[in-house]
Amino acid sequence: MFFHAHPDDEALLTAGTMAMLAAEGHRVVLVVATAGEHGLAELPHGDELGEARMNELYDSAARLGCARVVRLGYADSGLEAGGGAEDRPADAFMDADIEEAATRLAAILDEEKAELLTIYDPSGGYGHPDHVQVYRVGTRAAKLAATPPILLEATVNRDPLLKGVRLAAKFYPQLDIRSFETAYSASADITHRVNVRKWTSVKRQSMAAHATQASGGDGDRTLAALLKIPAPVYRYVFGTEWYVRRDLPPGTKMTHPFDD
Predict the structure, then answer these.
(1) Spelled out in words, what is the top-level CATH class assigned to the domain 2-155+186-244?
(2) What are the tens digits of pLDDT across the range 71-98?
């Protein structure tokens, strides 16, 4: 089971692993906390955008080989989630009761007899409150499940990311390097480096399924830029997916989610 905050998060962080496990014969279930109805897009915020993004999620999941897609039913807290509570929906995921949300997720874990659950690292990757809440809710749900699953934190290797950002900052001084210094996970903390190069074409299809997220705001979004990367470079850049498993001894290195 792969637990994400919004539609398109699965494409960016775990799509290769999902496709690989599905091809190996595992039942892969994708759970999202929200429909992403407050993301940047050409469509107006609200039900119309949420419905469009869920349809994109179903398309992405089908390409990845998912057997089931579940939405927990919380509201997207939005990109401005750091503001006051008055600026957020009453049922925003970031404000959800952790025990209640974890109980919902644990019920799906039990129904599916899930052996593996992916969440995010404690910082939520880049700090979005909905992503931090995925960590909190997922961690608690794994403990509530009748049979606790292997718990993996989907992340990015911060070390090469920082090198790339520092290089880019020489040409784009407006880049805030400090925001990347605490994002995702340090190389030393990563336990699983999953080789998904065989599945990068499927991962690219998963990204492309989320068409509403390719534009909006001031112009092309990150997703649109990533889809413009030439195939050989894309395969190199996105050929590895990273995870942290906290119950393994420090320094443990694995190459498959079910390594033990």
Answers:
(1) alpha beta
(2) 999 999 986 544 566 678 889 999 999 9
Query: Whose structure tokens read 């644990």?
Result: 106
Tokens (6 digits) for 163: 């090198």
List pLDDT tens digits, range 193-222.
999 999 999 999 999 999 988 765 554 567
The SS3 of residue 228 is coil
CA-wise closest residue to 64 among 115, 12, 100: 12
Which residue's structure tokens are 């905050």? 5
Task: Return the number of other C-beta atoms located less than 10 Å from residue 115's C-beta.
Answer: 15
pLDDT for res 176: 79
Q: Kindly report, residue by residue over 10-44, the tens digit of the pLDDT.
A: 999 999 999 999 999 999 999 999 999 987 666 55
Q: Where are the domains of the chain?
A: 2-155+186-244, 158-185
Nearest in space to 93 (alpha carbons), one of 120, 69, 116: 120
Looking at beta carbons, which pairs linking 156-165 to residues 24 or more positions away fall under 8 Å?
A: 156/13, 156/125, 156/183, 156/184, 156/185, 156/242, 157/184, 157/185, 157/187, 157/190, 157/193, 157/240, 157/242, 158/183, 158/184, 158/185, 158/186, 158/187, 159/186, 159/187, 160/187
Q: What element of type H or E holds 106?
A: helix 98-112
Determine the average pLDDT of the residues in 153-157: 96
Percent of the chain with pLDDT over 90: 71
- Residue in the block written with tokens 């700090």: 127
Cβ contacts of 111 within 8 Å, gap of 6 or more = none
Q: In what order do the strands lie in the sheet with 116-120?
A: 68-74, 29-34, 2-4, 116-120, 150-155, 240-244, 192-195
**pLDDT(251) > 90:** no
